[in-house]
Amino acid sequence: KSTGYYHTQNGPSLITIGKPGYAGTDEALLKEIHDRYCRALPVREIGARVFLRVGEPAGLYLYDPADPSVCAYRTGDVVQKADKRPLTADEIRTKVTKTGGTPFVFTAFEIESDDDAFLPVSALGRLRRDALDAFWDELTEAARKRQKPEKPEKALRENGRPEGFASLSPADRIWAQVGTKEQYLAAIGTGIRHVILDAPAGSALYEALRKDAGFLSGDAAHYLAFPEIMRESHRSDYLEMLSLVRKERHLMAGVLARTAEHLRFLKEAGYDGTVVADAGIYTWNTRTLSVLSHYCDLQVFPHELSGAQLLSSFGEEAGSRFLLTVYGRQPMMVSAGCVRKTTGSCAHSGTSFWHLRDRMGEDFPVQCVCGKNGELCHNVVLNAHPLSLHNYLNDPLPQQAKGLRLLFTTESGSKTQQILSAYLSRLDGDAQGGSAVFRDMKFTTGHYLKSAL
After folding, report:
1. Are strands 174-178 and 403-407 parallel, antiparallel or unpaired?
2. Phi/psi at 410 (nearest 5 deg)?
3. How does residue 291 score in pLDDT terms, banded at 50, 70 and 90?
4. Distance of CA 421 to CAs 10, 427, 428, 432, Å?
5. Is 202 left (phi over 0), alpha (psi -120 to 50) or beta?
6. pLDDT of 345-385, one tens digit each?
7. What's phi and psi for 354, nearest 5 deg?
8. pLDDT category of residue 269 using cuts at 50, 70 and 90
9. Residue 341 Cα to chain centre, angstroms
10. Which of 47, 112, 277, 398 could form a Cys-Cys staple with 281, CB 3.0–4.6 A?
11. pLDDT (tens digit, 9 = 90+) per residue, 51-98?
12. d(CA 360, CA 347)
């Protein structure tokens, strides 16, 4: 059993390597969390009409007073003629409006009943449950219809090509994120103009930058990525990273922030360069966009929304503020509990890859980032197959975005070069560019066509 981070910082007990399933946690802790944070659900007001006619099935009609088009009607047992005492209006109301454990509260209630109608209380309860379940389905279906079109792929392809897109060259539109010097040199070799350096303190790429940044190309804009997990106790390491960005200002155009803590740190440190907010700093609507615009200059589209949802929500802002990830192994989980450290094989520096194998035989790369002296360790579990939107580059969203990010993690230098060349070719108008590369690749389209919501 583990209480996670609730009482202490991460340690070996946080990750089990002996049990594949969830082993549970402290029941007292769960009760404390439930009592403190889970006492009330958001309330949804609904109305009801009950129909009780002797000899006919009982009926219950539920509706949304604010939107009557959202409604549900269910029938139950046949209403009986009362032998002794018929149901009273108060009894019917009490039983039907009992909604404990659901987010509903009745604000309108009507009864149409014969004077001698009778129905067992248990039958009324079943009718209420069936109707509430049906109403919930209608409510969620209505929300889905508002959020995305019925045919997202069709909608993506019919929004038209934005004006002015052709003014940018493919090399200007691609942002390559690399974690090794070999990947970096491959990216620069293809002429890429924007490179994100995933080089946390202690990694080989960071040490190379710290010792001599002369290998960086003067023809590209570079952005240093901060690590996925930030600890206040190691603030000096992040200040050192920021100092490197400032020192190499002629080569470093900005930083990639992955968490809200990074945004606060950069603001407190008085950093005035370009800040790119990664997908983990969620922008799911225009309200969050308005808030984050005070802290960052560019943002990576969230991975969980479909292309259609992103286009409808942020289409007007896409060309000025957003990068779209079109390639790369997407992070499935970030953990401060390091697998290598737990097994006693931490390298205490650098970045390495292990693998987790699931029951289907798929290997999920685990990026083990071992910081200085093994004190900044964390793991990033990556998808077994990379995202690749090479077949959708002519869609409005990829064409309208300010940039297209290709995320390189496990790829060798030569593989990085092949994939970048393939994307450059397709962006340059060759519909079959890189066919051999993509033909041999197992890939996913992520949530581009189907939202996670």
Report:
1. parallel
2. -90, -5
3. confident
4. 42, 10, 10, 12
5. left
6. 776 667 788 888 888 888 999 888 876 665 667 889 999 99
7. -115, 180
8. very high
9. 27
10. 277
11. 999 999 999 999 988 887 788 899 999 999 988 888 888 989 988 888
12. 30
**Cα–Cα distance measured from residue 233 to residue 128, given in angstroms and rounded to the nearest whole number:** 55
**Is there a contact between 241 and 262 (Cβ–Cβ < 8 Å)?**
no
Structure tokens, 175: 């942002």
Q: What is the pLDDT of residue 284?
A: 77
CA distance from start to end of the chain:
31
Q: What is the DSSP string of 323-392?
A: EEEEEEPPEEEEESS-HHHHTT---SSSEEEEEEE-TTS-EEEEEEE--GGGSS-EEEEEPSS-EE-GGG
Q: How far apart are CA 346 and CA 170, in angstroms?
A: 40
- The answer for residues whose C-beta is within 8 angstroms of residue 146's C-beta and 6 or more apart is none
Burial class of residue 426, CB neighbours in 10 A (0-12, 13-18, 19+)? buried
Biggest distance spanned by C-alpha atoms of the chain: 96
Q: Quick check: helix, strand or coil at residue 245?
A: helix
Q: How far apart are CA 445 and CA 71, in angstroms?
A: 35
Residue 149: the pLDDT is 43
Write down the pLDDT at residue 353.
Answer: 83
